[in-house]
Design goal:
single chain, 227 residues, alpha/beta, TIM Barrel, 7 strands
């Protein structure tokens, strides 16, 4: 992003009933906006959370349906999953144009096939990568008790805040990352604690969290070459 006084927090794998409301409250408290890439398999059970996220002024895009490597699936599966998820989201807000895409595991970012397919699905859409990452998909694995959550989250946030790509960058975190790793019982606490510490750190640095701006118009092959 061009404005180095801002950052864009992007949150994958939402929504979850035991964490999304707290995340929305934290974002409100700090006057922050975020961009949510929602998984259809979770969003289907939480239409009220989709609506509330939109109502509070955050951007919402599809993250596919099941959390699988869609770039390793047939093109028909990719398009069906994206369309199925967007159909859920479009009940609560107009379908954005141009559309921002982040597939699970950021799959397909350098695949011409994926870029061509998505360009057919939503002309002008763009895949969204990130710079600094909380690496929160691993944080809970380092926790052996609830007492570890704050310290482990702080380590990740301090590393992220020291990243030279922070100002003007796109940040990655998750709403309880979809994975099967040890420490999953700590994921709700990690999600909320991570966001609180991150927002505190950004505020201390006078950095505003904003939604991702739309991409400039580009042909699909230009986006692939520049990815």
């Amino acid at each position: 992003m061009a404005d180095r006084g801002t950052v864009a927090i992007t949150i994958d794998d939402a929504p979850m009933p035991d964490t999304t409301p707290a995340m929305l409250d934290l974002l409100d408290h700090f006057g922050a906006k975020a961009t949510f890439f929602m998984s259809g398999c979770r969003a289907a059970d939480a239409p009220d959370l989709i609506a509330e996220t939109v109502r509070r002024g955050h951007a919402v895009y599809a993250h596919g349906w099941d959390h699988v490597r869609l770039d390793r699936e047939p093109t028909s599966r990719l398009l069906d999953d994206m369309e199925r998820c967007e159909a859920l989201l479009s009940v609560h807000r107009p379908t954005p144009q141009p559309y921002l895409v982040r597939l699970p595991y950021n799959g397909g970012r350098r695949s011409a096939r994926i870029h061509r397919a998505l360009a057919r699905w939503r002309p002008g859409c763009a895949l969204v990568h990130w710079g600094p990452s909380t690496e929160d998909h691993m944080t809970a694995t380092r926790c052996t008790s609830a007492d570890d959550v704050e310290a482990e989250c702080r380590k990740d946030v301090e590393r992220l805040l020291a990243d030279p790509r922070l100002a003007g960058g796109i940040l990655l975190m998750h709403d309880q990352p979809i994975n099967e790793r040890p420490g999953s019982q700590f994921k709700p606490a990690v999600t909320v604690t991570m966001l609180r510490l991150l927002l505190e750190g950004l505020a201390q640095r006078s950095l505003r969290s904003v939604t991702l701006p739309p991409p400039p118009p580009q042909a699909w092959w230009q986006r692939f070459i520049l990815a």
